[in-house]
Amino acid sequence: MTTQLQSAEQLSATTLLRFATAGSVDDGKSTLVGRLLHDSKSILTDQLEAVEQASLNRGQEAPDLALLTDGLRAEREQGITIDVAYRYFATTRRRFILADTPGHVQYTRNMVTGASTAELAVVLVDARNGVVEQTRRHAAVAALLRVPHVVLAVNKMDLVDYAEPVFASIAEEFTAYAASLGVPEITAIPISALAGDNVVEPSAHMDWYGGPTVLEHLETVPVSHDLTACHARFPVQYVIRPQSAEHPDYRGYAGQIAAGVFRVGEAVSVLPSGRTTTITGIDALGESVDIAWAPQSVTIRLADDIDISRGDLIAPADDSPAVTRDVEATVCHVADQPLSVGQRVLIKHTTRTVKAIVKDIPSRLTLDDLSQHPAPGQLVANDIGRVVVRTAEPLALDAYADSRRTGSFLLIDPADGTTLSAGMAGASFAAVAAPAADDDAEWDF
Q: Which helix (H) or strand (E) is 173 found in, with range?
């Protein structure tokens, strides 16, 4: 099989879409991903030959395309996905980073990892089973992580005779549930990943469906959320002081612009100190520029010699985030060891890491019915709950609903550096969900 080749110029002209797949066990996530890669000619010849040989060794006549992503031995033995599998591919219209996430409830943390940076989530449903508990869990996680686009892929339509009423019933139920969580956009597509119906090519068996195929939707869904329109944020990563004969007085603050636009002459605040100054210069790729925007990596020069170090945040003087030592957030606990009230942790926010203590765990979220279990005392692996963390030093945090970049953080074990929990500052989706609004208008994606 020939591999579709593209020039560097073509790839640089296309946009990038990060998306994740989710669904219950045996709903066909890995098969869908394999079919997507196979039919879009994104598989190398030796990869396909390896899959064909592995399929023959298992007594299968046709290649099992799920093996393209299920790479762990335990995954192939059990026929399930355990870890997050990342795949990179491209078409003439767009580049893709795909995260194939597990379906088991005990791997909820893996789905959170895969979907945390996704701009779109594909939730699979078996047409024979309809919307089940795990489907609702994945919809809830997507809403919690503020994933702006959700695709409902009703799979295995070939096993229900491609019946339109079956698809319509599932699509109606899921759309109503996801909309109630505040998911801003839901697209339902009937498919058969095994047979290839509506994955890359339109199905000849479902002439009643006039919408896009999965690949067509992935190629055309708008992902041009303008980071330059968001609150400007610049976490300082490194202070540059060459003190050389050529640059005796140069002092620059290097990092990646998380969101927004910075301009020479603009008044800015340095947080958490709150000191104000003016931008006198911006250096990008070795040249001085008058303006820079996210996600560029630049060096900013300031008018005053303020005490600034790694972890400080530069923001517009009239649009700075609140500085606090009491962080209220929703977290997904990803470590095997529990997170308990009174536990000492490190909190890593952008480039800043400070000591902290878990003051309270007010509730644990039950994803089955979205109920809150009050005062659980601790969170264990895969739990999602509300926490209150007291930090030793102030942090400049945005709400996660406003910015996925500067509203997220990690809780880390200070003893061995293990990541304990992934946090989202501010209210959870349950507190802000609205069934019919443009709530995504100000989300920072």
A: helix 164-180
When computed from its CA atoms, the radius of gyration of the chain, rounded to whole angstroms, is 24
What are the residues whose beta carbons fall under 8 Å from the beta carbon of 386, sequence distance 6 or more?
328, 329, 330, 331, 361, 362, 363, 364, 365, 372, 428
Three-class DSSP category at 357: strand
Residue 317 exposure: Cα atoms within 13 Å on the Cβ side: 10
Q: Over the range 165-179, which residues count as b (16 or more CB within 10 Å of their CB) and which as e?
A: ebbeebbebbbebbb
175-206 pLDDT tens trace? 999 988 888 889 999 999 888 899 999 999 99
- CA–CA separation, 264 vs 282, rounded Å? 7
Cα separation, 328 vs 69, in Å, equals: 37
Q: Is 177 helix (H, G, I), strand (E, B) or coil?
A: helix
Enter the tokens of residue 51: 């899959």
Nearest in space to 327 (alpha carbons), one of 296, 306, 349, 304: 349
List of E strands, 243-370? 252-256, 261-263, 267-271, 275-284, 287-289, 291-293, 297-302, 313-316, 323-333, 339-340, 344-349, 352-366
Q: How far is CA 263 from CA 127, 232, 302, 406, 429, in A?
A: 53, 10, 11, 20, 34
Name the phi and psi angles at 53, rounded to 5. Answer: -65, -40
Q: What is the DSSP string of 106-163?
A: GGHHHHHHHHTT-SEEEEEEETTT-S-HHHHHHHHHHHHTT-SEEEEEEE-GGGGTT-
Token pair of 13 as six digits: 């002209």
The model's pTM is 0.79
Cα 145 to Cα 139: distance, rounded to the nearest angstrom: 10
Burial letters for 277-290: b for 16+ Cβ neighbours within 10 Å, e otherwise?
A: bebebbbeeeeeee
* pLDDT tens digits for range 338-354: 999 999 999 999 999 99
